[in-house]
Amino acid sequence: MNKQNSVLRDALKILRIKEVSEFNLRQALEKKGYRDPELSETINYLKSKNFLSDYRLCSLIIEKNIKKKRGLNYIRYFLANQGVPEHIISETLARMYPESLEYNIAKELVLSLKKPFRRVLYILNSRGFSEQTIEKLKGEISEEQ
């Protein structure tokens, strides 16, 4: 078996298990001892066949974290740690998770919590909601009390 087939086989094994970023796939294959040009050729082939897509990975992670009621900052940080390029993160977040949606999710979370005001602010912050959203909610909550 030639080296190119071997790289492709190992890359497909990884992608069969879970969706990964181009960066993480490259790292995993480098750990197995593969180097360029076979590595770059394999990654370009996988991208051309749509087996590997940072945009798709980004969308999946954003959807999952919206359902878990997590904020923009949490999602941005998580995606960056997965090796997704910043321009893809920004583009996909702008399309899928505008600030108005983050605000609505944060408000829904606040209303469901039934906890003291300071604890609610801590929870919002720990879930990665933006400062603008937290400040807006702070103003609303203090007006209601």
Describe the model.
This protein has 145 residues and is mainly alpha-helical. Among the domains are: 1-52; 99-144, no CATH class. The chain is built from nine helices and no strands. It has helices at residues 3-17, 22-31, 38-48, 54-67, 72-81, 86-96, 99-113, 117-126, 131-144. Helix 1 packs across helix 3 (38-48), helix 7 packs across helix 9 and helix 8 (117-126) runs antiparallel to helix 9 (131-144). The chain is elongated and about 65 Å long. The relative contact order is 0.11. The model has no long low-confidence stretch (mean pLDDT 91).
Produce a short descriptive summary:
The chain is mainly alpha-helical and 145 residues long. It has helices at residues 3-17, 22-31, 38-48, 54-67, 72-81, 86-96, 99-113, 117-126, 131-144.
Can you lay out the helices and strands and say which pair or pack?
Layout: H1 3-17, H2 22-31, H3 38-48, H4 54-67, H5 72-81, H6 86-96, H7 99-113, H8 117-126, H9 131-144
Percent helix range: over 70%
Shape: elongated
Number of helices: 9
Strand count, sense and barrel status of the largest sheet are:
none
- Written as H for each helix and E for each strand, in order along the chain, the element string is HHHHHHHHH
Low-confidence stretches: none
- Bin the strand percentage: under 5%
Content-based structural category? mainly alpha
**Rg, nearest Å:** 20 Å
Q: List how many beta strands DSSP finds.
A: 0
Termini separation comes to 71 Å
Average pLDDT, rounded to a whole number, is 91
List keywords for this structure.
145 residues
